[in-house]
User: What shape does this take?
Amino acid sequence: MKNREKVLKNMKGFCNACPSCDGRFCAGNVPGMGGVGSGSSFISNVSELKKYKLNMKVMSCEKEPDTSLELFGFKLSFPLLAAPIGGTSFNMSKTVSEEAYANTIIKACASRGIIGCTGDGPQEFVYLAGYKAIQEAGGAGIPFIKPWDDKLLMERLEGAKIIGSEYIGMDIDSIGLINVKVNGGNIPIRNSSQYKALLKRLPFKVILKGIMDPREAVECVEMGAAGIIVSNHGGRILDHSRSTVSALPGIVRAVGGRVPVLVDGGIRSGFDMVKVMALGADAVLIGRPFTTAAMGDLENGAGEYIDKLKNQFIQAMLLTGCSNLEQLKENGSNIIFKS
Ligand SMILES: Cc1cc2nc3c(=O)[nH]c(=O)nc-3n(C[C@H](O)[C@H](O)[C@H](O)COP(=O)(O)O)c2cc1C
Assistant: This one.
């Protein structure tokens, strides 16, 4: 890891800046950077993905891989989003502010042609920092807001209207989030009919995050979701949850291309990105490694991490015989093997 000393200083007490960000050192640290409880959900996101290997081909790629795509109204240079990460002061750093962190991520992503996302929490300053960063970047980014009770949700979404967001994300898995409970937040339990009615009232296209079950994914499509993110919140919701890579193929099959399916959890490199896209994901979110990259050298650190991911992604596409993203998805079963 680049600038490890600086990462350790900025993230003192929160992160060990491990060479492989795999959830072992920080197990149980929520609040903090870890996975909840035993940490096994975070750990298995990483370890299950490692079991997939790429099938190398050297005469199958027709030309330099084209990694570009359109997603949620953005033109992307490759299929990556920086995952929403909120609560800087109580999860990751006493020296870098919420605003500085949100700015860093949004600017670095905008400069590399990918989408930066921002987070939310019971404290207002979390989502406000995200809105401000997205507004200052001319709308380049997607804010994620938690499904608060109707009154608070509508209040918070006023700001998303002001900054002109067409898409918002909603991490509906937050009903199980410790950080919300310990900070006095209230997220009501809603069924799919209640969510459907809620989504109808919102003047945004809504991407639903935290889906791990194929039937619930279908319900999300029927509720009017603009996209689905297969996610267990980086293992921060339910201890002993299955890994996201194991949930992904069933959800992709169930959704059948009706809306984009994205995935996060344990994805660390451009090689990992190719693996999950070969399993059917339309794009990928990465969380914690963006945090450590940013804590090492703010926008430069995050920017360099994106460059590295893109180079790895192109290399992996070239050497698995994929000239474009359609081929990567169509030939998935020829591209990866589970060892
Ligand atoms: C410290 C921390 C804060 C997070 N805050 C949010 C948040 O505000 N909203 C959200 O939807 N997800 C949040 N997440 C979850 C991430 O968006 C993402 O799902 C997860 O980090 C992906 O796993 P990875 O870190 O292994 O890549 C947070 C995760 C961490 C580690």
